[in-house]
Amino acid sequence: MTITNMEDLKKRKLEETVGNGEFSSVEHLRSLLEPLPKPQLVDLLARLGSQYPSIAEEIKSVASADPVNRKLFVRGLAWNTTSETLCATFSVHGEIEEGAVIYDKTTGKSRGYGFITYKHMESTKAALKAPSKIIEGRMAVCNLACEGLSGSSTTPDLAQRKLYIGGLSPDITSEMLLNFFGRYGDIEEGSVAYDKDTNESRGFGFVTYTTVEATKKAIDDPDKTFGGRNIIVKLADSHRNKMMQAQVPPAIPSMPYPVAAAGYPQPGKPHGGVAPVGYAYPPQALASYHASYPSLTSAHASYASQPQIPHPHQVIGKKDAPGLHLITPTGMGGYPYYMAKQ
């Protein structure tokens, strides 16, 4: 019996079932399916799709209708990679519905990443089986666009899988870098860092392995010579932390606040009550001195009612003018009152 005859037989049986009133309504089937867990539903649809081609086509149509399942984010592109080159690279996996490199609106230069949308979800899955691709000498990496810019590479052990490679010769390309470090294990992504304006090497690069073991092999290898130079191989995370620490300005050492000579009051602070060297006036005398002037108004009124006393400079050159005696303010320990220089 041919496949066509089998399909006709199944169709007739289905029609007979409907005619006998044995066919369940959509509402009834939905009520039966809703309590089922997702894995069981997936298994059920998979078995039905494998038995009935029409159901398989329906499943494919529904799955491919949502562009979320067909759109890829591609990062790590060379600055001179065009949209045409990007599409040509990914067209090997299937028909492309849309593809483009993203450019900066202000400068008009590539931002180093782009997007690919396939017509069918199967093409997207095929591309994801080999997410790393060499495009114009640089390793680009793709992941589903819905996963974000970081994609599947953002895993808890990423910090232990990503290496910083410093001291590279300007002649070293990304392809040479990947070939050299590929001896330690499978590489997920990697590239030489290039200047956006000149497209020249900046003398360092990054390599991310698929396993932590491969990263350790690359670090532990005593031979650190590449391209005729001694290179630096270390975890990229430790290098980033070191660079961040170098950019932070050193802490300003704390300087002791200069302590004024004892006995001289500081602005906004109460008088310490310690007499300056050579001046032995007691604190209680000073307190009584200030207490005699509780406010500016009362002080002025009290001062105005007293007789005027000539200042000592008025009697310079005279020992003691008749009827004049040097008056010492109360509580100043016998010393004349001097005005501070302004």
From TrEMBL:
Instruction: Cite the InterPro entries for this sequence.
Output: Nucleotide-bd_a/b_plait_sf (IPR012677), RBD_domain_sf (IPR035979), RRM2_NsCP33-like (IPR048289), RRM_dom (IPR000504), SLIRP/GR-RBP-like (IPR052462)
Instruction: Tell me which positions the record assigns to the signal sequence.
Output: none
Keywords noted in UniProt: RNA-binding
The RRM domain covers 70-161, 161-238
* Superkingdom, taxonomy of origin: Eukaryota
**PROSITE patterns membership:** RRM
Which SUPFAM superfamilies does its entry note? RNA-binding domain, RBD
Q: Report a single Gene Ontology molecular function.
A: RNA binding
Record Pfam families = RRM_1
Protein name, please? UBP1-associated protein 2C-like
Query: What is the originating organism of this protein?
Result: Cucurbita moschata
Tell me the lineage of the source organism: Eukaryota, Viridiplantae, Streptophyta, Embryophyta, Tracheophyta
